[in-house]
Design goal:
The protein is of the alpha/beta class. About 45% of the residues lie in helices and about 15% in strands. Strands 2, 3, 7, 8 and 9 form a five-stranded mixed beta sheet that branches.
């Protein structure tokens, strides 16, 4: 994150709503799921990650070239993915799996924390809620981390109908067996 932040910052400055350049207050966070989130990463593990931000609409500031804040965070996310999936003489560094972001592979590369919460409440599938069990904040904005943890907790403690939940889990396992 720091390397990618520095590159994007040098080109476009910082989002207009920020007052400093530190990652602790950068308005961006990396959330890990799966084996990385569960601290079980091993050889050939891919990296399941979601990028969150808290940007308001606006422009970056502090450099000659300004861009929209959402574009700043999208560029930041793309730089991180490029760094993680870099090809080396020994092969690809890591596989980055972004399917857990709202909208899956066709969704935005970064999600506003409020849109992320709305997606989890209204549109997420059961397996996406189950994936939250192993999700954890990796790095970035500390306030955003607290917001994510609150959302995560609220989704996980939601009351569910046992019959519907059992059926959805059964159906999900059947689809996995078929693949």
């Amino acid at each position: 994150l720091q390397i990618s932040w520095d590159i994007v910052f040098q080109k476009y400055g910082i989002p207009g709503n920020l007052s400093c350049e530190t990652l602790d207050h950068c308005g961006f966070a990396i959330i890990a799921y799966g084996k990385v989130g569960g601290l079980e990463m091993g050889y050939k593990s891919d990296i399941d990650i979601v990028f969150l931000h808290t940007a308001d609409s606006g422009m970056t500031k502090g450099k000659e070239k300004s861009i929209e804040t959402i574009r700043f965070y999208s560029n930041l996310g793309q730089r991180i993915i490029n760094a993680l999936t870099m090809h080396t003489s020994a092969g690809t560094l890591y596989g980055a799996d972004m399917r857990l972001r709202p909208g899956g592979d066709s969704g935005m590369i970064v999600s506003h924390i409020e849109a992320f919460e709305e997606y989890l409440k209204k549109d997420a599938w059961t397996w996406e809620h189950q994936a939250l069990i192993r999700a954890r904040f990796i790095c970035g904005d500390k306030t955003l981390c607290k917001k994510f943890e609150k959302i995560r907790k609220n989704i996980l403690i939601e009351k569910r109908d046992d019959r519907i939940l059992k059926k959805e889990v059964h159906d999900m396992r059947e689809r996995m067996r078929e693949d």
